[in-house]
Amino acid sequence: LAQWKLLRVIGKGAFGKVRVIQDKKGDYFALKYINKETCIARQSVVNVLRERAILAGLDHPLVARLYYAFQDADHLYFVSELLLGGDLRYHIVRFTFTEEAIRHWIAEIAAALAYVHTRGIVHRDVKPDNVLLDVEGHAKLADFNVSTQARPGNLPKSRSGSLLYMAPEVHRADEYDGMADYWSLGVTFYECIYGSRPFHGGDAKEVMNRVNSDKPAFPEVSPAVSRECVSALSALLQIEPRERLGSKPFAQHPFFSALSWNALETGTSDPIYKPAPKSFDVTWELEDLLLEGSPLDARR
């Protein structure tokens, strides 16, 4: 750590803190501390090592980047891209956004997921907490701590992720692939539009039953939600994975077709919403890992 200038703490999670650091050239990064003893006690070693391996193989402008990973006797350290625009949840619980602003975020995360899926990875925890904004307002996919490899003939079946964002096939513990992430993106999209999630329940079983049987409601609100937006939401929240938007390109859907997808996919588009400077000091909450073997610990 001697080569870094340690600055303010910006988060605290199950395994340690996250703080801003500065290198000798004056560039800023986020340093995540992972306490080895705590990690072992929580039986999370496999998750942490897998997250590091996955992040090391990813290089996309809309995926939060891992630059370095190292360790000492007590801690593992991840040095990552510093994204100080706050997480998406911070913004959607405080402000109301236009369809255009929300469309840009959802399209950017869809582009990030498309890239991640080409690498044979399922994120498994897409939700507003795990979408971070940079200072320009670009949405970046973060927190790969329950991500896993998904290859033909070797697909995951575990109930991993956050309970209210899990796809029907994940709830059922069926085999699944990247299409499960598009369901989670649909729940995130719905939450951005309506301010609530489409499915609720008193416990995991009730949520599973509703997700696998109910159709999402699209209430009348003011200002009215466009038909194209409702169509896109419905297309993402299809129970059958192969019928979901994502099995076909987003650019072909009327709600997304007007966007410049080349600019989106290269991170050169112009965001509709730019976070106010006060958001740059937001402390985002880092959550506990959901262990693959403990589905009842799913986060809500």
UniProtKB/TrEMBL annotation:
Q: Does the keyword Acyltransferase apply?
A: no
Q: What is this protein called?
A: AGC/YANK protein kinase
Species this protein is from: Protomyces lactucae-debilis
Keywords in alphabetical order, please: ATP-binding, Kinase, Nucleotide-binding, Serine/threonine-protein kinase, Transferase
UniProt keyword annotation of ATP-binding present = yes
Q: What residues does ATP bind to?
A: K32
Which BP terms in the Gene Ontology apply to this protein? G protein-coupled receptor signaling pathway; regulation of signal transduction
Q: Which Pfam families match?
A: Pkinase
Q: Enumerate the spans annotated as Protein kinase domain.
A: 4-256
What is the organism lineage in this UniProt record?
A: Eukaryota, Fungi, Dikarya, Ascomycota, Taphrinomycotina
List, in alphabetical order, the Gene Ontology terms for molecular function in this entry: ATP binding; G protein-coupled receptor binding; G protein-coupled receptor kinase activity
Family, per entry: Belongs to the protein kinase superfamily.
- Cite the SMART domains for this sequence: S_TKc
